[in-house]
Design brief:
single chain, alpha+beta, Glutaredoxin, Glutathione S-transferase Yfyf (Class Pi), Chain A, domain 2, 2 domains, four-stranded mixed β-sheet, 4 strands, about 50% helix, binds glutathione
């Protein structure tokens, strides 16, 4: 089994952190989706990373499919297998992925030549991030984790999303969301997150 991806992609980081959490045997192949000679389009017609190449020759994409596949390989499950807890965890993943999408879109828009940038698009993406942070702060319980009393996929994906916001859209969200900030400070010390932190994203 091989995971293809870049060191900086937060979508790839989700899969890498899950592999580390579960100590799965999976080779990591650094691949640039944008490079002219990239191996990615042959594996994923969308041309995006992460891609998981299975031993039977099949390739899986995109990150929610990959993390679900990897999680099912070995207990204990980080994604509850059934019931309300499963849908709620998947909803946290949808929120985290949406925050990543908004942060990436904002970044790409802000890198366009100044006269071509849409301030309206940047504002819309920032609103999505702000609304998601507020939602998460409101719904984060008093306990240590997002779901019940143990670390789950919800904690993993939300930590990846919030650290990506700090990396690519740094702003003071902690002032308004003290519980979320406290939770992130605790969870981000996990080896799975420390060891997958991209170069340049190291904690100050
Ligand atoms: N929804 C996808 C998003 C993956 C994605 O956008 N990956 C970026 C890297 S951060 C990529 O490969 N972009 C190349 C492209 O869009 O051509 C997932 O969750 O895997």
């Amino acid at each position: 089994m091989k995971l293809y991806g870049s060191l900086t992609s937060p979508y790839v980081r989700k899969a890498r952190a899950l592999i580390r959490e579960k100590n799965l045997a999976c080779e990591f192949v650094v691949a640039d989706a944008w490079a002219a000679d990239s191996p990615i389009p042959a594996l994923n017609p969308l041309g995006k990373v992460p891609v998981l190449a299975l031993d039977n020759g099949e390739a899986l994409f995109d990150s929610p499919v990959i993390v679900e596949y990897l999680d099912a390989l070995q207990a204990p499950a980080l994604l509850p297998v059934s019931g309300t807890a499963r849908w709620e965890t998947l909803r946290w993943q949808a929120l985290a992925d949406g925050m990543l999408d908004a942060t990436v879109t904002r970044l790409l828009e802000s890198r366009r030549p100044a006269e071509q940038q849409s301030t309206e698009n940047i504002r819309r993406q920032e609103e999505k991030v702000a609304g998601s942070l507020e939602y998460a702060e409101r719904r984060l319980g008093r306990g240590q984790w997002f779901m019940a009393d143990r670390f789950s996929l919800a904690d993993l994906v939300m930590a990846v999303a919030l650290e990506y916001i700090d990396f690519r859209y740094p702003h003071d969200w902690r002032g308004r969301h003290a519980r979320l900030a406290r939770w992130l400070a605790g969870v981000s010390a996990r080896p799975s997150l420390v060891e997958t932190r991209p170069p340049g994203m190291e904690k100050k």
